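Shipment paperwork, digital attachment
Item: protein structure file
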Amino acid sequence: MIDREQYAPGPASGAQVRKDGEKWTLILVRELRHSPETVWQALTDPAHLREWAPFETDGALGTVGTVNLTWVGRPTPIETTVTRADAPNVLEYGDMRWELGAFGAGTRLTLWHNIDRRFISWGAAGWHICFDVLERLLTGEPIGRISGGEAMKFGGWQRLNAEYAKQFGIETPNWGPDAPKREA
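Attachment content:
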């Protein structure tokens, strides 16, 4: 494993927001240097997800059906239904949709994630770091999962949160211990 202290995320990029009242959809696009089949496996296999995603599952996400999804820092699993699994192109479950498209020799990965507007910049910063961790995992240079409360203590997350808030035209959330809790 590469020393994670050497990791520094790049600037906020590849994100946009679609607004619908209090529920906003975060859209993140990342170009990865790996085939759609390789990226699909990382998105659907529980062992791969444990290495980079902000959640774990008790089953594979690559087929339509029900799995228990547990977000990092949350003790209670959430029963989640995979509603679409068209390998290696489209994956939908819960409040997320993933699209994978061939892009040169790699993959253009697009995530749509419905998030309460109060947490949109947090989500963008968190997914940005998760995608960085995913890229390093796929290139054989894993740095270990950085998500949840651990990510929020990470200096790069704070910077990204502020950059995405500015990009989305919102104030940077700066809540203390009595902050509203994020609904999973």
